[in-house]
Every structure is written in structure tokens, then in C-alpha cells.
Amino acid sequence: MAKGIVKPNKFAFAEPPNELVLESGEKLGPITLVYETYGSLNANQDNAILIFHALSGDAHVAGYHSESDKKPGWWDSMVGPGKAFDTDKYFVICANTIGGCQGSTGPASINPKTGKPYALDFPVITVSDMVKAQTYLLDHLGIKKVFATTGGSLGGMAALQFAVDYPERVANVIPIATTARLSAQNIAFNEVGRRAIIHDPNWNNGNYYDKTPPNNGLALARMIGHITYLSDETMHKKFGRELKGEKQFETGFDAQFQVENYLRYKGFSFTQRFDANSYLYITKAADLFDLTDGHKSLAQAFKKCKDTRFLVISFTSDWLFPSYQSFEIVNAIKANRLHVSYKEIESTYGHDAFLLEVEEQTKTIKNFLAAGENA
What we know:
This protein is 34% helix and 17% strand. By secondary structure, the chain is an alpha/beta fold. Helix 1 crosses helix 2. The longest helix has 16 residues, at 358-373.
């Protein structure tokens, strides 16, 4: 295998009658998870790091699939030899979540009962379901307890959910740019994106897989979402009020400003790699996420995490998941007198900072993991 080249793997489980029982009580199976691994599992099987991806992410967290790939995995700056998640030391795992559209079982997968894509027959899933499915992958890999779980945004929610649901299976947790529950504002943004898809004439109640997909609606949903990932300062620096050409006054609404052109490009390119129904299901899972479910308080949710260390990271310009939401997590962990470190990183990148602020994150994470090795 060439240096930096990684190959995806598939793991199938939950064959009937042993389907995965979801939080809703519905059953899902069989299930396929596509995953990638980096580095080597040590003899004690205690150096694994499980990374959860964000909404539009996938299992391809680092490296390249082929020599001709133009871009590496989505967190290549953080995963690899000598990087924050050092693959010379750790065995890094990242799987495409259930409900996704990059190889793992989701709405576009074939429903064995009908022989057709699930579409809206796919059951509603939650972050807890996403995490539960990946415990089967860990069992398959022979890993009883991971050294760490981590992720940004939705991935950070999953890392927290893993700690709360399976405290005996994780030593260190690093939630980044995330929250303990989605705010009304974020639910509102997600709903507008979903409405854009559902009102696309090509959506056809989710049954579009042998027809023209609802790309206009999905592109609009992505445009809305992408605005929330950036800060005002970032948008000003990147675009300001720069025009594509001369100012136009005639009738018509073609993109005149560079920011309009950029958002249209982001929306269109997203439709080339993502499934509209997956967008509906994954945003709904994010909306339903609330660590206090089944607990009297957020502090009580962490009560069983007695042997777990936490590092919570936020960014000053992240208005999607502002720092006060991370500090709420920190306070809940502190209420249980557990080990928790908190780092707020100065950044102008907005929510996307977890993908872009490499140097400060790397230093913080390396120090935290090194201390965990000696804990």
C-alpha cells in the first residue's frame, strides 16, 4: 500500500432476527458500516481512538483513496503520523454513521423487505443509535475499551453520547465545537433546510432514487447550513461586497456578488456527493439529541463516567455552538468531580474552526492524550 493510501472496509451485522433495536423501539437490519482505520492496534488493544464525523462527513477522515485523489480525508490535518491523533501511537477508527450515504446503511440502501431503497421507510435514528451501531464495530475489531473518542459538531455530540451510554468503554473523551443539546435556533436552521428539500418538486416523498433527485432543495439546504458554519469576520475577509463583474441593474437574479457565487458552488457540489434523505434523517437525529434524556439533569448524565477524562474544546467565533454551551458541559462534568479540561481557542473561522485551527488544537490534544497515557 502506497504511503498515505487508505482503503475503506465494510462490516455487516444485525442480520434478522438479530436486528439492531433503535431508541424508538424500531428494528434495523441487516446493517453495513463502512469504516477506515489508520495506524496499528497494539498487543493490549488499548490504543484505539474512535472518531465520529460531522453531518456531511464520512469514514474518510485522513489520507487518500488513490494516487489520483485531489483532496485527502476531511480531518487529514489532525490524523496521521506526528499529528494530533498520532497514527504512530494510536489506532484510529472512523466509520460512516448509519443513516448516512457513503456506504453505511441509510435511506438510499436497499430495504430487504421490498427490494427497493428504504427512502422514508427507513426508521428515525438518534445519535444514541449511531453510537450503539459503532459498538458492534468495536466488538468486531476486538476492542473492549477505546483510549479516546472525539469529533466536532455532530461528531462531538456522538463522542459525548458514547461516554454517557458506555462509560466503561472509553478512557478519554474530546468533544469539539459541540453541545449537550441542540438549541431552538439550530433546530430552526435544520428545519428550514429540510423544508427546502421536501418542497423540491423532485423530492417525491423521498422516492426519487430512479428519478431526478431533489438537487435544488438539497443545494439550498446546504447553502443555509454553510452560512452557519462561517463567522461574519470570515465572510467579510473572504468576500466582503466584492462583485463578480460590473454592478448590474437589469431584471434578473443571477449571482452578482462573490459570496452568492460561492454559496451556489457549495450547494451544487454538495449534491454530487450527498443524499437528500440522509440530510433529513441526520439533521433530525441532531435535533433529537439531548444528553439529559433519561436523566434528571445534565450533571446526572455524567454520573457513571467515574474513570473517564474529558477535554472540551470551543472556539470564540463559533455562533452555531457558542462557548457557553461547551462551558455548560464542563460544569456538569465538574459537578461529578470528574477530570475535565477546557480550552477555548481564539479563532475567526466560526464553527468551521474545528477543521481549520490545527496548531492550537494539536498542541492541546497531544498534551491531554499524553497525560491520559500516564493516568
